[in-house]
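Why does this matter for the project? Reviewers at the last site visit asked to see concrete outputs rather than summary tables. In response, this paragraph embeds two records directly. Each consists of the residue sequence and, immediately after it, the corresponding structure tokens. Nothing has been edited or filtered.
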Amino acid sequence: MTSRQEPEAGQQQGRPLAPLPDHRNVFDPSWQRAWARFGHVTTPLRERGLSCDVQYGLDDWIVYAWLPGHDSVVLVGRQNGWLATHQAPAESPTSMSVLYDTTVSPGPDDFADVEPLLSAVDALLARLAHAQSPPAARGVHVAEVPAPPAAGRGTRSR
């Protein structure tokens, strides 16, 4: 684990990284080993501006990535594969959709090759950005229309 003052991988390429988690476990050697183990996942997610954390679940390591707003992506690494879910509690406290899953029939390199996983996260980010931005009216010019003159008293015709 690098200290907070040293540049991390990714920053050397000019991409600012999302901040490290801010909790007491960042100084725990076992957390630091887990963070280093999942650096191939957390660093690209942090390059995309997502804050991340790692945690051991019941049987699997879990990588959390927080999206803008209250949404999150939960990545579970199990049996050499990944299960990635998108959770949107603002829509519904139980809202969860599967983004990517290689845990059903993992290949030998599914755990190490995270490009397809990151592509699924990129697709989610693009969908969320598109849903949040107003549609652009291309080729349409809206001219200002002057307000009609105020009607004077007693000018109504019968």
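We now turn to the second protein, recorded in exactly the same manner.
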Amino acid sequence: MIRTEGVTDVTEETFAAEVLESALPVLVQFTADWCGPCRQLAPVLGEIARKEADRIRIVQLDVDRETAISVRYGVLATPTLMVFRAGEPVRSIVGARPKRRLLQELEDVLVPVNPTGRDRTDLDAFPEVRI
């Protein structure tokens, strides 16, 4: 698996705790060792993971090792980026993106920061998003 600082690896055993039960939205990168665009995207995701840690978690899942999860969520290509909020997928993006474009596409699913500067992790802070 592609190792990136700030990006956690998830498996079938850890997926529920790390993704579905997370208080923050979670971006899951469905990836594979052989995927060139996944390697290009890795430093972008690492940087976003570090800079936006209070608004979103980023994890990666190897599609070759964790086929059941990939099938469950209909992942047909790598990289697929899927954002989960409150245990449900709310956004799916296929293919690598530059950092600026990816952040624009994620802006409406990131946890808003309230005027006091403290994080809002309650579900009322999120707009309704459909995939």
